[in-house]
Amino acid sequence: MMKKRISNHLEGVTIKGDYTGGDVIVNGCMPKANKNTEKKSDKTVFLSYNWHDGEIADRIDRHLSRNCGITVMRDVRDIGTWKSIREFMKSIRQQDYAVLIVSDLYLKSKNCMFEVTEVMKEQKYMDRIFPAVVERSIYDPLVRVEYIKHWQRECQKLESTIKGLHPADIVELAEELRRYQRIASSISEFLDMVSDRNQPDLQDIEAQIEKAVLKN
Q: What is the dihedral of CA 24, 25, 27, 33, to 10 degrees?
């Protein structure tokens, strides 16, 4: 008696587990469905970057997300529709670690530097951040001075712009000015700390980050 051949026709199905089929190898890590289903043991990593450095961010994101013990928090994935961008940025303090892709545009971005000032509020914040240095010129103290001056100028420009407004109209702008001032007062410490570290090679940084996260 001939055995009947059984065929399964699957459409729109993603195969999980260590599976090799045809020319495709599927990674063995089951994805986290959402923040509420993360395992308690997962390490959370906040990815802080300027969108112009998206290629590096993508590379780090892909590498870390393959590890079942790491959950990567990233704006393009974790800010819900019509949700607060600022509240998401503040959540950097709640994560176990933060990867900071430090480029020229990062250091001049108010949003990126807001994330920096938020994480710097934490005790022992230096043990919780992994800078990925793109802008190598920050090892020169003269270059670091220029970034400090940049934020001092930004503070002065915003302050002079809102001076002529009625007090009732400047509540939110005054808070924005305070954020600028926090950046201006923190950037020197941040740059000194980053430039003092023995930075891994940028081409291998995702593996080094993964190793450091899982070791702790």
A: 30
